[in-house]
């Protein structure tokens, strides 16, 4: 929709009723910078301009301004420069102090005007092994209160529970690596020449320390070489000598890979008595 310049001027006159002089001056500078040539429309097919209520100009609108907006004079007015925004006596500047109005340098706040620092943590909330810095950052890192990724876990502060493990002190040269080396050495750990089918009655005969066989998951092993290397001790391991130890083994440490640990001790496969 196009307006002719006259309607344009009337609309702006209506604005002068509702807007203050600063806004009017801004609009005036804007319209004066637009060439007036394109505003007078006589394009084919243009719709007739809508009816606009004409409002008489007030005393505040001097004739000079109206003439400028109508484009009657070609001269550039001295007051074509946009006004200061916000205006020098406007409400936006009214709230600021005199110092900032006269100077654009912001005033530095005094200590009493600044936000107070957060309170220091009380001594009662501190725990051994944690610093105030780590406990303050723990909430940010979502670590449980009183702990930090850098502090020593509280569990290590407790004395070890000696009853928690049933491991025994192995003789020197009988650690897990020593057993692994013995397996690789090529030494005969089976005591038999060939693997065979072993009935339960035969298994029961091998129940001495120097001749101990035990069945685990259908496989029969010579456990005598492993006895001094067993972390749970020889006594525990001898409980299954000459019998099927599958259930006891699973109840004690089902995670231990017996097939790998005793592969060189395999003597045969458990079969039922005929
Ligand atoms: C010949 C088969 C067995 C092998 C190869 C074997 C191997 C092991 C290994 C590797 C460990 C150390 C586990 C760990 O550090 O987590 C261990 C611990 C232990 N084993 Fe055995 N074991 C055997 C049979 C048995 C049997 C039949 C018993 C019980 C009658 C037994 C009782 C124990 C006990 C009490 C521990 C100490 C667990 C602990 O408190 O940490 N083991 N065994």
From TrEMBL:
Location of region: Disordered: 40-136
Source organism superkingdom: Eukaryota
Protein keywords: Heme, Iron, Metal-binding
Alphabetical list of InterPro entries matching this protein: Cyt_B5-like_heme/steroid-bd, Cyt_B5-like_heme/steroid_sf, Cyt_B5_heme-BS, Cytochrome_b5/Flavoprotein_Rdt
Biased composition (Acidic residues): 57-77
Comp. bias regions, Polar residues: 94-105
Xref: SUPFAM superfamilies: Cytochrome b5-like heme/steroid binding domain
Regions of compositional bias (Low complexity) in chain numbering: 124-136
UniProt domain Cytochrome b5 heme-binding: residue ranges: 195-271
Entry's family note: Belongs to the cytochrome b5 family.
PANTHER family membership: CYTOCHROME B5 REDUCTASE 4 (PTHR46237:SF1), CYTOCHROME B5 REDUCTASE 4 FAMILY MEMBER (PTHR46237)
Protein name listed in UniProt: Cytochrome b5 heme-binding domain-containing protein
Organism whose genome encodes this protein: Somion occarium
């Amino acid at each position: 929709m196009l307006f002719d310049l006259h309607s344009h001027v009337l609309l702006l006159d209506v604005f002068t009723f509702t807007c203050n002089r600063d806004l009017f001056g801004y609009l005036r500078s804007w319209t004066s910078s637009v060439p007036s040539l394109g505003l007078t429309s006589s394009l084919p097919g243009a719709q007739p301009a809508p009816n606009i209520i004409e409002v008489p100009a007030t005393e505040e609108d001097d004739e000079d301004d109206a003439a400028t907006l109508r484009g009657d004079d070609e001269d550039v007015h001295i007051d074509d420069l946009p006004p200061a925004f916000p205006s020098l006596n406007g409400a936006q500047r009214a709230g600021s102090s005199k110092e900032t109005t006269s100077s654009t340098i912001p005033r530095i706040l005094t200590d009493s005007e600044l936000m107070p620092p957060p309170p220091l943590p009380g001594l009662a909330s501190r725990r051994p092994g944690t610093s105030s810095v780590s406990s303050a950052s723990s909430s940010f890192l979502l670590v449980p209160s009183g702990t930090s990724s850098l502090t020593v876990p509280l569990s290590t502060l407790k004395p070890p529970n000696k009853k928690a493990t049933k491991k025994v002190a192995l003789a020197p040269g009988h650690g897990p690596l020593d057993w692994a080396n013995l397996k690789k050495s090529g030494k005969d750990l089976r005591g038999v020449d060939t693997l065979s089918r072993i009935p339960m009655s035969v298994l029961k005969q091998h129940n001495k320390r120097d001749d101990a066989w035990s069945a685990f998951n259908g496989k029969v092993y010579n456990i005598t070489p492993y006895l001094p290397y067993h972390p749970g001790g020889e006594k525990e391991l001898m409980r299954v000598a000459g019998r099927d130890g599958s259930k006891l083994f699973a109840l004690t440490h089902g995670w231990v890979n017996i097939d790998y640990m005793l592969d060189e001790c395999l003597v045969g496969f458990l079969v039922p008595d005929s």
